[in-house]
Design brief:
Oligomer: single chain
Number of domains: 1
Shape: flat
Number of helices: 12
Radius of gyration: 24 Å
Helix content: over 70%
Strand content: under 5%
Structural class: mainly alpha
């Protein structure tokens, strides 16, 4: 007797097996791209903070500004490295990969190794500054969390989300390059009110574009990556993953950076207000990316679904409708 299949994971054309593929196509490429992005974030943080910065409020504020970006990049890189490690496990010992415990162990270890390496670099380079131990530990834990996520069964869906997260990162980077032009486009002038209004519109627009990019790339990954067993729930989740990862990164940022943010608040009440504003901005960005990404992925999937074939009821209703119209 054949095992029943789960129709939710069927392809959009009605074909395919019941369960989605457990392998993540192109995980090695995703891991490489994620590592490049993480290296770029580390370089940016080092350039902003400096090599041997003095213990001043400005230094702490710069660290607080760069830390969330490092956490987000580490989480995504940990997931990508974990996916690549599980793929490698499948090539070396295929049946073992289908067992949950070995899969989680390998993926988590890979993410932890990445996070620990980054934590050591941070601790050695900036160990004299306050709260650096907590920040480094958070990066190690975040890498392990990303690796843990890579141990899920439906890894093709997670890999699509990781690809979408990298696309969202790229969209934010490009928007940052043209930030001044975007501010002017949205009406920024010399007044504080116009600057605040323009900044609000820029932040919202960038989040929408980043979410759309993440959802579109997630859709393309699943559509083109040979994942023929993934149905609409997989596309929905893949489109939402970039926003979900951003939310997880923000949670890790708030937990691991609590002492740093507390020190900044004690040094300057104005700095506390700034950090609260930045936190709200990141949360809003993550939520917009989540919903827009999921919506874009589903819309793109719907546009490629074949039209529903006419059933017996439709064929029987056709002549009856024609007869009614002719009578009237």
């Amino acid at each position: 007797m054949c095992a029943p299949t789960n129709s939710r994971w069927r392809t959009s054309d009605g074909h395919g097996a019941g369960a989605p593929p457990t392998r993540a196509p192109g995980a090695g490429t995703l891991a490489l791209l994620a590592m490049v992005w993480l290296l770029a974030m580390v370089t940016s943080a080092r350039f902003t903070v400096g090599d041997s910065p003095p213990l001043t409020p400005v230094t702490l504020a710069r660290i607080a500004l760069e830390f969330p970006q490092l956490v987000a990049a580490t989480l995504v890189a940990g997931a990508a490295i974990g996916l690549a490690a599980v793929n490698l496990l499948g090539r070396r010992a295929g049946p073992v990969r289908e067992r949950l415990a070995p899969r989680l162990a390998v993926s988590t270890a890979a993410g932890l190794a990445l996070g620990t390496a980054l934590a050591v670099v941070i601790a050695v380079g900036y160990g004299t500054l306050p709260a650096v131990g907590e920040l480094a530990g958070t990066l190690a834990a975040t890498g392990a969390l990303g690796g843990l996520l890579a141990g899920v069964r439906h890894r093709a869906v997670l890999a699509a989300g990781v690809a979408g997260a990298l696309a969202a990162f790229a969209a934010r980077f490009v928007a940052g390059v043209f930030d001044a032009d975007l501010q002017t486009l949205f009406g920024a002038r010399d007044t504080a009110e116009s600057l605040l209004t323009a900044s609000t519109w820029v932040v919202l627009s960038v989040a929408v574009v980043a979410g759309a990019a993440g959802g579109a790339i997630g859709y393309v990954y699943l559509r083109r990556g040979g994942s023929s067993g993934v149905g609409w729930p997989g596309y929905l989740v893949a489109g939402a993953v970039p926003g979900l990862l951003a939310l997880l990164a923000e949670v890790a940022t708030q937990i691991g950076g609590a002492r740093l943010f507390q020190l900044l608040g004690q040094l300057s009440p104005d700095e506390r207000v700034v950090q609260e504003f930045l936190t709200t901005t990141r949360l809003n960005h993550a939520l917009v990316v989540l919903f827009v990404g999921a919506l874009v992925a589903i819309v793109l999937l719907g546009r490629t679904m074949p039209a529903r074939a006419a059933g017996p009821a439709d064929e029987a209703a056709g002549p009856a409708d024609q007869e009614t119209q002719s009578t009237s």
